[in-house]
């Protein structure tokens, strides 16, 4: 799991997890807001699939991506 996800989970009050198509979605509360945290994977297709799942399964109203580039 990426260090960014580990950090976000460490400051989130996690209430449950849900696995869809091999991706684990962590559902909880961060700074008083309902959040869903996951690791999308590499590439545009996996990112798009992750967004579609967030919209369809969790009815999200805002999506923030964290991009990590390793050189």
Give an account of the 3D structure.
There is one protein chain. The chain is of the alpha+beta class and 71 residues long. The chain has one domain (3-58). 32% of the residues lie in helices and 30% in strands. The chain is built from two helices and three strands. It has helices at 3-10, 44-58; strands at residues 13-20, 23-30, 33-37. The protein has a three-stranded antiparallel sheet with strand order 1-2-3, with helices on both faces. Strand 2 and strand 3 (33-37) form a beta hairpin. The longest helix has 15 residues, at 44-58. It is globular, with a radius of gyration of 12 Å. The model has no long low-confidence stretch (mean pLDDT 84).
């Amino acid at each position: 799991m990426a260090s960014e996800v580990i950090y976000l989970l460490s400051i989130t009050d996690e209430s449950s997890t849900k696995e869809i198509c091999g991706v684990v979605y962590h559902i909880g509360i961060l700074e008083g807001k309902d959040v869903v945290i996951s690791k999308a994977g590499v590439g545009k297709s996996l990112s798009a699939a992750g967004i579609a799942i967030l919209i369809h399964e969790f009815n999200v109203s805002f999506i923030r991506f964290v991009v990590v580039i390793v050189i």
